[in-house]
Amino acid sequence: MVSTKRRRDDDDTDEGTPRKLRARITEEPPDEYEPFEAQTPSRKGRAQQLAENGTPRSILKKTGLANGIHINGTPKSARKLVFETPTKPTKDETPDGTPTIVRNADRSARRKSNRRILERALNGAESEDEALEEGDILAEQILAEEEEEEEDEVVEQAQQAAAQEPIPVPETPTKRGRGRPKGSGKVKKPRSPTPPTELPPHEEYFWQNRPGGTKTSNNTLSAQSLLNHDEYFQAMQSYRDRHEPEMQFLLELHSRAYDQWIFELDEGFNICLYGYGSKRTITEDLTARLYHHLLEQVPYTATKKTPRIVVINGYSAGTTIKDILTTIASAAVPTNVKMPNQPTALLDFLLEYLSNNPSSHPVPVVINSIDSPYLRKSPNPTMLARLASHPCINLICTADTPNFPLLWDVGLKTQYKFLFHDTTTFAPYDAEIDAVETVNDLLGRSGRRMGGRDGVGFVLRSLPENARELFRILVMEQLTLSFVDGGGLGEDEDIPATPRSKKVPQTKHVVSESSQGVEYRVLYHKAVEAFVCSSEVGFRTLLKEFHDHQMIESRKDAMGTERLWVPFRQEELEGLAEDLAGDAF
Amino acid sequence: MEHQRCYIYELPKTEERSPKRQRTNRYNAQAQLPERLQTYRELWAQQEERIQEQDTLEKADSAVQGKIVNFISASSSMPDERKSVIPTGLIVAGPSIASHGPFFERLGRSIKEDAGSAYVVLTSGECPNLKTLLKNLIKKATSRVDDDDEDDLDRPATSSKHGPKLLNYDLGHIQEWNKRNRVSSIVVALQDSEAFDAGLLVDMIDLFHSWLDRLPFVLLFGIATSAESFEDRLSGNSLRYLEGEKFDVTQSDDIIEKLFSATVASTHVRLRIGPNISRRMLDRQKDHVQNTQDFCDGLKYAYMSHFYASYPSLFLKEDIAFKDLSPDAFEAVRNLPSFRQWVEKKLEQGQAQEVRSLLNSNEYMFEQVMLHIKSSQQALSTLSHAAQVLSNTREALQMSPKVRLSSIWTRAASGELSNSPLLRETMLCIKKIPSDKLVLLLAAMQQLEGDYFSMDISLLQKEIDKLLQTNDTNAPLRTQHDVRNDNLRTTVVAQKVLLSKHKAALSEQDKAYSDLVGRFYDKLEAYFDSAFIDPRTLFLSEVLVYDLKSPHTEVFQPKPRFAIERALASPHDYLGCDCCTGVDGNEAALSATQPATAIVYQMYLESGTLINVSDLWSAFNAIAGDGDEENESKTMAIFQRALAELKYLGLVKPSRKKTDHITKIMWKGL
């Protein structure tokens, strides 16, 4: 780190003035003479600059070529030559006595290309199109530079302009295009910014998936803008859907079909409802209607007995086939019969029992969201199909996802004997989805699950001192790692100067996606050194507590080493670190 | 209740009013529903009987099953002889996988009954490896309950009696069981042999072979492709352990054909399905290789829909009396399009008086309806029978391409057959028919002679017999239209070649024969002309033929993805509200009034594979938000809900490429 720092210092001192200078140059490109005169009274400077353009720049060009992105280095060094003494060109480049810049440039080039190879290996698929893109860029650059030699002054102007612009973060492959001189843009094919419209779906797919096709902005949602559960429910309470009457009308339309559906059930078919919107209201109403329908029939008239309808909410977490079978069994089989424990055996038993003791009417089974992740897994559809194919079972189910028929092959479909009805309701999936949770998952902010920073604080307060200490170590390590990552790669001065600028978390996030977090071993040793724990068992016990509260996550990286991290973004992590250091807990 | 996993439904306390009351004062489409359903049940019971007896399910395979059973009992009849190969049945069951399961089930029943063997079906799903296969085999063969607690009870007993205890995948279990039960053979059927791992099959065959001296195994393989490809998968070594015999199961296509002629194209059917629906059902069978059960279900649903939804279907009830009917029923008949056509025709013919009484008098109407139901049914039966005649004719003449009865019937029922190329071609062929073929054709037709086909076949047969007796040559008699009676003459006139056809002189017999064929041809043509009418022009065709595609298609071939995409892309289609039709007449524009998910979905459609949620949010806020900072959290809430719904529907997934980005995974209409 020392070398980079020093270099940065050098840059700072060197560039103090020329920066402003260049700004002026770009402002008045036709007359570039005068600013030079301010520095060097004779015309030597200009002549020299021209002379220098011949030889030393080519070296730098080569390095620029090698790493493909080092272009902003070029104008810098060229500039420097302008106001150093012309007699000793070799020494000029090395204020400390060694040719640091060249070496640094070379070294960083090698380092970068190595890192890029590693990155590509780790990220796998996603970098394949990048590789393509990279090739294009390289070709474009070579072309650009050839032109540059010819019309060198003009381009140099442009390069200066480019160098003058705040260069964001050049080390990610996707952003490499940024470092390219703006002047060479004419080589690029002009691309219309608006996508073609009216493409057939498959063409649209290929258009949108073309290599390097999508450019999205780097904007991020601020941590405050997403709502947490409380805020969400508060906001939702006051929210009234303007389509309430229309949705009611849809429901009313569907309700006219209830009798028809009951007739279909009576004829031995099963019913599957699909369409956009939660269908719970419909199944509830239908169940009520079915209940009354059955109540009017023979075994229930003039008796206290009531029909038993099984309702299963497939969407609720952890619904298993065993739950379903046990509930059905409880509805169909008298309680004094002993039943097997295994689901398959239970199913066999149930079907056999129903065949031998057919009830007066089939047992209605209502399954909400039969395509939920819990009921999708391998043996479940087959077992449900066997259940549904029995004449003594009437299945009414709803399916929410658009592709649910793919769950069943021809054989299963025949067994299910479904009649499908479109029941689009537009009703919100209130019970089916936890909106806040889903969005957090979608955006990789699972850390928000336990209430963010305050939640962590709450948990930590209830834990012993050394647990807090361990968490502090983990947070600090993670922060350091992200700084090292960011600092090592971004060679610009802006990182230490403005560490909380918007770009830093992005850099960190993109770079360390694959190598995110602290190595398990490292953390353990740190913890032992800090006397947090004395054995691995103790260490594990402490970690388990964090795991239970979902405060840390762990993953095996590509090399197979286990890594631990706190699932927060940079800003929140910093806040946490402050809290931890400041004895807030 | 909504967050509970499973529960038994209980009536909510608050609901006092039974929904039954609402029903009574509602529209009268439900009028006399019980009677109609009663009629439906009667009619369907008849059909079901036909399906049962025609079927297929039992009858069609019975021949094959008999063969398989014989094969098994033959292979197990000599138990003393030491066998060196496993008797193996290769059952080529065809590509309709859905019907394999029921087939093997029925096969199992007959094997158990007739051959006195143990029968075990294994599917690839339950046998990922040899160990599991054996476990399952043992479990099924010995019908042992594989409960862990029971095992514990059993084990000490077995181990003390028979030395060391057996592992639960040891075939010794079967041996022991066999000692007690003494079955003549143990039939192991692999239902979907293609899905089994080839290595697993080889291992299994090796193992069974090594046990063959103790256990009388017989293997059955269900094959969907061909026996050759099955053999290719096994090594020569394991093939040597097998002694195979191939059995071809009746393909579901043929069964469907039989079912079709029994249930739709038969003359005794009171309610028919129309050409559109039957075409759909047949196409579905063909395209999605479904099974006979599915066909029956489709037919049943057509019957159900007819009686459930259409009031005039009540007239199909057998011996219905005038007093059973409410005036509404006649009103319903008067609204039928076919009634209107019929009445208009009557008016053209100047029978205004009759039309008046049809409109005014329910009694007269009733009589007419009863009359026409009979006559229309007669016409429909004639049509069906004619289709059968045509099909048999083509078969007897061995014409190609082979056209199935189902497609002939479907075309006939849609009124396309009269003057169609198919019919003309067939008739042309009859014109040229030589006497040997005519004899066959007449024989085939004689079976069809009856109420709906009253041609005097026997008379023709007598005549032709007479002619043939006088024919002293071996060659069959030919008609004047036969190509062989033409000869080509070339003449050269002024260095130009002229081709001219000349009829060869016909012999006396041929002349007589030509005359006979000519008469036959004329009669047949007249018959086809009279039979192949367009059924839709018949009065009461709506009652006698069910041909609505509307509930049928959606119910059996749903398009859930299309429905969801449509709901989200143009919510107006479903909601029918005034606010969401678009902004300023521009239909494509997103309006703020649309449901939040629909707005987000349409923005989703416009974006590329990677979507920046932050930008999505600002776009959404620009459309749906009111610009008020205070209300932003409300907008955010519905945005979050919309996004979560997209995730739930499986349209997006998290992306790890960039922060706050999601990946698009579904393209509309793709």
From TrEMBL, chain A:
Keywords: DNA replication, Nucleus. InterPro entries: ORC2, RecA-like_ORC2, WHD_ORC2. The keyword Nucleus applies. Residues 514-572 form the Origin recognition complex subunit 2 winged-helix domain. GO terms for biological process: DNA replication. Residues 156-166 have a biased composition (Low complexity). The keyword Nucleus applies. Residues 1-114, 146-220 are annotated as: Disordered. Residues 246-423 form the Origin recognition complex subunit 2 RecA-like domain. GO terms for molecular function: DNA replication origin binding. One of its GO terms (cellular component) is nuclear origin of replication recognition complex. Residues 175-191 have a biased composition (Basic residues). Residues 146-155 have a biased composition (Acidic residues). It is found in: Nucleus. Component of the origin recognition complex (ORC). Belongs to the ORC2 family. Component of the origin recognition complex (ORC) that binds origins of replication. DNA-binding is ATP-dependent. ORC is required to assemble the pre-replication complex necessary to initiate DNA replication. This is Origin recognition complex subunit 2. It comes from Cucurbitaria berberidis CBS 394.84. The lineage of its organism: Eukaryota, Fungi, Dikarya, Ascomycota, Pezizomycotina.
From TrEMBL, chain B:
Residues 561-633 form the Origin recognition complex subunit 3 winged helix C-terminal domain. InterPro entries: ORC3, ORC3_N, ORC_WH_C. It comes from the Eukaryota. It is found in: Nucleus. GO terms for cellular component: DNA replication preinitiation complex; nuclear origin of replication recognition complex; nuclear pre-replicative complex. Residues 13-310 form the Origin recognition complex subunit 3 N-terminal domain. GO terms for molecular function: DNA replication origin binding. One of its GO terms (biological process) is DNA replication initiation. Keywords: DNA replication, DNA-binding, Nucleus. Belongs to the ORC3 family. This is Origin recognition complex subunit. It comes from Cucurbitaria berberidis CBS 394.84.
